Amino acid sequence: MDMVAALDWVHSEVAAFGGDPGRITVGRESARSAGSLDMMWSPLAKGNAAGIISESGALGPRDPLTVTAATSYRTRVAAESFGLNFANQRNVSSITEMRELPVSVLMAEDNISDTILDKSICANVSGFGNPPEWRPVLDGYILPMSYEKALLSNSHWDIPVLTRNNKDEDAASKNPSLTLAEFKIQFKLMLDSLSEEFSNLYPADNDTMAGEVANTLWHDMTRVGMWQWAMYWQEGRARNSVFTYFWTHAPPNQTSGAYHGSELYYVFNNIPYTEPPKTWTANEHRIGDTTVSYWMNFIKTGNPNGHSLERWSANSDRKQIMVLGDSCAEGAISGGARVDFLERFFKAQKPW
């Protein structure tokens, strides 16, 4: 509700600062990007923004990573049960007494994780982890319904969306450490009846290949998941477009690749101001200029395309995604057989 109130204030006051209340774009990254999407889902915030940017990022409603990432939510029943237990453990019996608890008592619980994955197919798969206990609640008021239902019924703001995930984030890693034995055990547990087909599509014969192939799977899941989210958007007959991209560029002087948040140097044009300083080349500035241009076009018009930029198509059944980084071009989200495989895997999962 604090985000709803903040957005309402910006919409009311931005004109006094020279801004246009009709062109507000809500854009955030990581856990905050889920907050951007929450503003899109919530009827309380409707009409206060013209676009959404979600960096790490929208994932398909049946993608298991949705459960573990910042996009995860609790049901009202689960949240109320947790709240009652929390109150009882502190001998609190009323809302008034709850409001009098010191902030330090609440913050002490900030790192508690839920146990929602403990009995799921992903319980023992590296790359997955339980979400925090304190997270958004599907309460029927601020967040009225599940993501899948909202998308398929167009029960959300119908405004342009730009969303992105990075090559070396979530379960993927520039330096994978998964052994072949772990690879075989984990993905058999996760994929069950699809595990034999998985072995044919993602073959690995040694530890090095196991880590590389696992990364390929996570990259595919991320891209297919984003694409599916946007396809749900279209199936719900939303009029506005979704633009998806995959960030592949690794900033200099580090070994973690295109890690979580690595694009932020570029999208905010902060390359010269990093601390500690990095070895920025002309190519780094070129990548930054291109990325900033796409973002500014989207913020101004709801469409990232503009003069002299490579064409960036809105999401469609062509199964394409924009790749930004060392190169700048549209490409397939994955090989056709692997996309079909992941679509069937996602379809069998619980909807969110």
From TrEMBL:
Gene Ontology BP terms: antibiotic biosynthetic process; monocarboxylic acid biosynthetic process
Segments forming domain Carboxylesterase type B: 1-322
Gene3D superfamilies xref list: alpha/beta hydrolase
Domain of life according to the entry: Eukaryota
Protein name: Carboxylesterase type B domain-containing protein
